[in-house]
Design goal:
Number of helices: 1
Largest sheet: none
Structural class: mainly alpha
Number of strands: 0
Shape: rod-shaped
Order of helices and strands: H
């Protein structure tokens, strides 16, 4: 049976750099997604308010 040698420090350093870059990309993607989610929620809120206002206007004109 052949034993696999442990990774060299340079290999570990490269793997760590790639993971750190991936983590930063994921963090930025998450922040963009959160921002978009907040925008969507605000648009939905505006629609609900507009519907309530229209319903109230119809109720007062009936």
């Amino acid at each position: 049976m052949t034993d696999t040698p442990p990774p060299l420090d340079a290999d570990l350093d490269e793997r760590e750099r790639r993971l750190q870059a991936d983590a930063e990309d994921a963090r930025q993607t998450l922040n963009r997604a959160r921002s978009r989610y907040d925008q969507i929620c605000e648009e939905l809120r505006a629609i609900r308010i507009e519907r309530q206002e229209r319903a109230a206007a119809r109720a007062t004109t009936s």
